[in-house]
Amino acid sequence: MAEKPSLEARFERGLFASRWLMAPMYLGLVVSLAMLLVIFLKELAYYAPKAFSLTADQGILAVLTLIDLSLAANLLLIVLFSGYENFVSKLEIGETADRPDWMGTVDFSGLKMKLIASIVAISGIHLLKVFMALGKGEAANAPGTDTLRWMVVIHLTFVISGVLLALMDWLTARTDKH
Predict the structure, then answer these.
(1) Are 120 and 141 in contact (CB under 8 A)?
(2) pTM of the prediction?
(3) Half-sphere exposure of 73 (CA within 13 A, CB side)
(4) Which residue spans traverse the membrane (predicted)?
(5) What count of other Cβ atoms lies within 10 Å of the Cβ of residue 78?
(6) What is the Cα–Cα distance from 160 to 165, expressed in whole angstroms?
(7) pLDDT (tens digit, 9 = 90+) per residue, 121-139?
(8) Which residues have a Cβ under 8 Å from the Cβ of 60 and sit 6 or more positions away?
(9) Among 79, 159, 145, which residue's Cα sits nearest to residue 117?
């Protein structure tokens, strides 16, 4: 095979090396994960002392808030690990017992599906919290009818988008590779 001209080879090496421009963005996501941890701990510190005085519904809403933050953090980890491994460099951390099974195996298609599933779950939890508040006469703090309608429409848009992405991936997997 003939060698490429020197200028073209250097250009391609530089182009390939440009993937490292994403590394600071992943570092920023680590900082974002720490921010979510602070918010989680702040919410936990707020609700924990009230555990004995909360009603069942208030307790469920508190737990849903913590689950919501946890799902957002999980989503951030998935993007962080998978994005870095898919677009920058493989993580050379060895085979430890703590290594998640999906690490190194989530491709761009899998990442899309995990992202949309997490977004649907987060949106659903938020919607559930609003509905629970409405059902307990806390309508004064609840969003108006138009806002609630838009929240449902947006949630359904996420759900439909997830189904369509899954359908596209399924169709792509069934077609012959060109």
Answers:
(1) no
(2) 0.70
(3) 16
(4) 20-40, 60-81, 115-135, 147-168
(5) 20
(6) 9
(7) 888 888 888 877 776 665 5
(8) 132
(9) 159
